[in-house]
Each structure stands twice: as structure tokens, then as C-alpha cells.
Amino acid sequence: MTTPIKAAQRLGETQELAPVLLRTSDLTMRFGGLTALDKVNVDVRRGSIHSVIGPNGAGKTTLFNCIMQANRISSGDIHFASERLVGLTPDKVAAAGIARTYQNIRLFTGITAIENLLVGMHRQLKSHWWEAVINSARCRLDEKKAHEEACEILNFIGLSGRGDMLARNLSYGDQRRLEIGRALCTKPKLLMLDEPTAGMNPREITEMMHFILRIRDVFNLTIVLIEHQMRLVMQVSDTVTVLDHGVKIAEGDPAHVKSHPAVIEAYLGRAAHRQEQPA
What we know:
Rossmann fold, 2 domains, 6-stranded mixed sheet, 4-stranded antiparallel sheet, 10 strands, globular, ABC_AA/LPS_Transport, L-valine transmembrane transporter activity, ATP binding, L-phenylalanine transmembrane transporter activity, ATP hydrolysis activity
């Protein structure tokens, strides 16, 4: 059986040959007198799992918000698959092929699991609004296909048989997977996960580690991951970017980043670094 770390290492061997899918160039974001991101340059290669780490307040979620154009950047540029994202609305960024999840789960808790997935599929529907009014044949076919695909996603995320449950009644871990499933329903090229293991116990973290690798392999996706669980980051990542107070202080493969003096000082801490060393 291939372990997560071996799967990541195998893919990592080919990453230098993969084209850049997402690029930020001197990306700067200021909120008044606070510089949340300071000329951050990141290249995310197609097919990779690229983690962004750093202490609280480092600018990680701000980076996601800038990529999605939820925040209007102060200066710099962002390109995705050769398309310039700066100036687009968030829905246009999503239409370009980027989906994201949030540190705090954002589900429609008053509707069912399957309905949450169907919300993510609205961009895939081809029929017009007026066809829904008259219940046209094309509209019925669209709805049937969407429901079938939603059921496939429901099975993939491990919620088969629970599609009729209200989202609020699912367990915390199931809600996390449902939010990721809804993002997958948009059929993205790039999936951005903001702390997917937040609040999880060790067993759930291990399950999520395997789940992330399955997503990458089954859907042939590129994944950008914000995560504080260093065990997960070190085992699944091809590339790790480290931010501290909005500045990129290190970048490279997990082994390089793990031993980088600036990372040890700013994020891992010297005691944590010593614990990570082999006996």
C-alpha cells in the first residue's frame, strides 16, 4: 500500500517539469497602515499540493482572499492559467476554475447535504431560467444529471445514504467533507483549502490527510493548503511556502522548509524542531 508521504514524494519528483498554474507577483495587500502581504511571490505548479504555513496573522487567509478577489489588492498581480485575475469579481474567479473552503465552515445549514452539493453545481447547468419556469425537457435533463453527479460526490466524500440529512445535523468532520464536496461540484482546476483539519482529533486528521491525496489523484486537481498541522503538511506537500507578518520567509520542499532557520524561529519554534529530529 502506498503511504501518503510516498505518494507525495513520487509526485514531487515530477513537479519541476509541471507548468505554473497560479502565480502571484509582488502581491501586496494593505489595510490602512497595516501591510498584510508584502510583495509575495508564489508559483503553484499544476498537479501539486502546495501548502502555505505561518503563525497566526501571517497573511495566509488574506492570500486566499486576494486570489479569490474578495480583497482588492494594493499592488502586484495574480495570474491563473495565463488569465489575469486582478479586477475580476469573485464569481468570475470561480468560473475561471478556482474553488475554496473556509477556516470556519460555511455551509447552508438549513438545507440537506445533497442540496448543498447541488448549490455548487449551478454553473454546470445549461438551461435558461425560463426553462425552469416551464419545466422544459432540457431543464429536467440538467437537473437529473446534476443530481446524479451530486450523488457521486456524496459517495466520494463518505456521506452516501446521508444526502437527505440537514447539514446542521451532520458531525463536524462530515460537515468539513461536505464543504469540500461542494467545492468539488464546481469542477475546479485549483482547490484552495483553508485549515481543513481545524478542530479535528488525531484520527480525523489522518483521515483528512488521505482524503486530500485522494482528491488530488481522483480529480487530477492542484491543491493549495493552509494548515497548522505540521505532520499533515510535511507528509502531503510537494512545496511549502512560509509567511511571517505578510512576508515570504522560506519556500521549498518539506525537508528544506523544516530545517530552515527562519522557519524554526518564526513558526515551528526551536523546541518543536528538536522534537521533529530522528532519535
